[in-house]
Specification:
By secondary structure, this protein is an alpha/beta fold. The chain contains 14 helices and 17 strands. The model has no long low-confidence stretch (mean pLDDT 95).
Length: 367
């Protein structure tokens, strides 16, 4: 049996957020939801017919906004893979607090989903309005309460730094408000203005905190989350002990995962590939089209690059041939406060994470 992650992309939203560059569409119909559900199940079955030995130990419904889907979507998808689903699988669904009614949450939990990831982003309503979110913070608080009532004991919340109008005071309000909700996991992302988004077209770059200020806000959030009992285990991810995202760790550990749906990515069977960003094509075709990006993924360079995103870093004792080069570079950076090196394990500090691309390039310069 082969433990594998499953990512299912749900390309539907009630409203497209101005900063979001993920593939999604707003205002879709119930019939399209049904067609999409059938296409997801069909593609899962295609994989299981070809690879019956697969055991899914993590499942992740991402988007888009998976919580706009009817409860039957989660029930039917999970039912379709039940014979290949690990008994202790972590099954996550992303949820917008503005779509989280009591009945919907209870139904999602009863379908088999056991972990929620809530797109809270901020506890300051003016910041939420600028982000184009459809919820206010009171609705986020209600969503967490209803989720606990529905039986969810593993809840994550998203927090965004570097957004328009954000100050140290408003960030602290948000960090502490999320911690006060007793979330099990917090993902704290720095806003990045991507080409093709409404933010990019509107030239909002001049209205958000500059790079130096955003770095200060990030480090402040790291310290405050640590003070509130959240361990940083990856650049943007913090958790209480034992609540790290098992699915996302698959990405950073270079483990196998299969992506289903338009724009989904996979690393499976010795290849890395993606599905075109085309909902209509995905629904119509028997098998989703998969474009190969890499024939031999997960070599040393990629494993090291991904491992260095984690606070645990990379244990070079497992790579005796490559270790001397990396350790030589690490020693050059040891006095900067950006890199730690101990007993052959190299990792980045919180300050180092702010310059991760540059530092990782230097550490892996010979590969």
């Amino acid at each position: 049996m082969v433990n594998t992650g499953l990512y299912i992309h749900v390309p539907f939203c009630i409203k497209k957020c101005p900063y979001c560059d993920f593939y999604s569409a707003a205002g879709c119909s119930e019939s399209e939801y049904g067609q999409y559900t059938s296409a997801v199940i069909r593609n899962i079955q295609n994989y299981l017919e070809k690879y019956p030995e697969i055991v899914f130990d993590t499942v992740y419904f991402g988007g888009g906004t998976p919580s706009v889907m009817p409860v039957s979507f989660f029930r039917d998808v999970l039912e379709s893979l039940k014979h290949n689903l690990d008994d202790g699988a972590e099954i996550t669904a992303e949820l917008n607090p503005g779509t989280a009614g009591e009945e919907k949450l209870a139904g999602i939990r009863q379908s088999g989903v056991n972990r929620l990831s809530l797109g809270i982003q901020s506890a300051v309503d003016s910041e939420l309005r600028d982000l184009g979110r459809i919820h206010n913070f009171r609705e986020a608080e209600t969503a967490v309460s209803l989720a606990r009532k529905a039986g969810f004991s593993n809840i994550s919340g998203d927090l965004m730094t570097g957004i328009k109008g954000q100050t140290e005071e408003t960030l602290m309000k948000s960090v502490n408000a999320l911690a006060d909700l007793e979330l099990d996991h917090i993902s704290s992302y720095m806003l990045k203005i991507e080409q093709g988004t409404e933010y990019f077209r509107n030239g909002i770059s001049s209205e958000v905190p500059d790079e130096e200020k955003t770095a200060e806000l990030y480090l402040l959030s790291v310290k405050t989350l640590a003070d509130r009992g959240y361990h940083q285990y990856e650049i943007s991810n913090f958790s209480r002990p034992g609540y790290e995202s098992r699915h996302n760790l698959k990405y950073w550990h270079c483990d196998d995962y299969i992506g289903i749906g338009p724009s989904a990515h996979s690393c499976f069977g010795g290849k890395r590939y993606e599905v075109p960003r085309d909902l209509s094509k995905f629904i119509k075709e028997k098998n989703q089209q998969e474009i190969i990006n890499e024939d031999h993924p997960c070599g040393f360079f990629e494993k090291a690059m991904l491992a260095l995103r984690l606070t645990e870093g990379i244990d070079l004792n497992n790579y005796p041939e490559e270790a001397p080069s990396v350790l030589k570079q690490a020693e050059k950076l040891a006095g900067t406060g950006l890199v730690k090196c101990r007993n052959g394990v190299v990792s980045l500090t919180a300050e180092g994470f702010l310059l991760s691309n540059e530092i990782i390039s230097r550490l892996l310069a010979d590969f």
